[in-house]
């Protein structure tokens, strides 16, 4: 019984018996609560290596405000792919850029999506208040939160940090280094091994690892 429990616990992570964590960044607004959280990429075991089955994403969510707090039972979600994160960062970094609209629709190939399930993520800078509004919009709901300059900077830092990890690049670039010993590779990038001694890159001693 004890061994089976340990095995199930270790299945959560290839890093060993550590509990999963679900980090998120929250902004509490008068109209809604906005939250940003990472979704880790998923891998399958191909025998001698791991193959990426699905890339990661950043999940955005909004909860409408009520008279007693926020309606957590009716969250509105919008996921960002790495390419969409790039578009968002480019807009936030471009001087004079006022607005960005990203649209998700089940019928994405239609020139003018009209499906009821179509939803939009709208980013708009308000120069008068020096705030940036993150808005969710669909045929059934609308929710918006204004981010201060400090909150927006945190969002940008999290997005920039996440992109290579959502794509899985950190598995290779932050793994063991490869040394060319007179033409024969020694050590393997990304966990590959050729039977020779491995040389590990020093890891930072401060801060915790993200769960992907």
TrEMBL record:
UniProt entry tagged with the keyword Ribosomal protein: no
GO BP annotations listed: defense response; regulation of DNA-templated transcription
Single GO term (MF): single-stranded DNA binding
Region (Disordered) residue spans: 184-212
Pfam families: Whirly (PF08536)
Top-level division of the source organism's lineage: Eukaryota
Cross-referenced Gene3D superfamilies: Transcriptional Coactivator Pc4, Chain A (2.30.31.10)
Keywords for the protein's UniProt record, in alphabetical order: Transit peptide
Family the UniProt entry places it in: Belongs to the Whirly family.
The protein, known as: Aste57867_22378 protein
Source species of the chain: Aphanomyces stellatus
């Amino acid at each position: 019984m004890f061994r089976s429990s340990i095995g199930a616990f270790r299945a959560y992570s290839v890093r060993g018996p550590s509990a999963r964590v679900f980090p998120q960044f929250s902004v509490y607004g008068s109209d809604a609560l906005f939250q940003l959280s990472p979704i880790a990429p998923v891998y399958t075991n191909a025998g001698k290596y791991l193959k990426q089955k699905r890339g990661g994403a950043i999940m955005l969510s909004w909860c409408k405000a009520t008279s007693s707090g926020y309606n957590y039972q009716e969250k509105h979600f919008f996921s960002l792919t790495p390419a969409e994160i790039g578009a968002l960062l480019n807009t936030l970094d471009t001087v004079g850029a006022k607005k960005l609209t990203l649209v998700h629709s089940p019928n994405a190939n239609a020139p003018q999506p009209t499906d009821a399930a179509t939803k939009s993520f709208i980013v708009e800078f308000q120069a008068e208040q020096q705030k940036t509004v993150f808005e969710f919009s669909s045929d059934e709901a609308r929710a918006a939160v204004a981010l201060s300059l400090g909150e927006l900077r945190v969002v940008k830092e999290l997005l920039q940090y996440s992109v290579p990890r959502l794509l899985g690049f950190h598995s290779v670039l932050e793994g063991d280094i490869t040394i060319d010993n007179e033409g024969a590779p020694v050590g393997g990038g990304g966990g590959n091994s050729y039977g020779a001694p491995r040389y590990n890159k020093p890891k930072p001693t401060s801060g915790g690892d993200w769960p992907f």
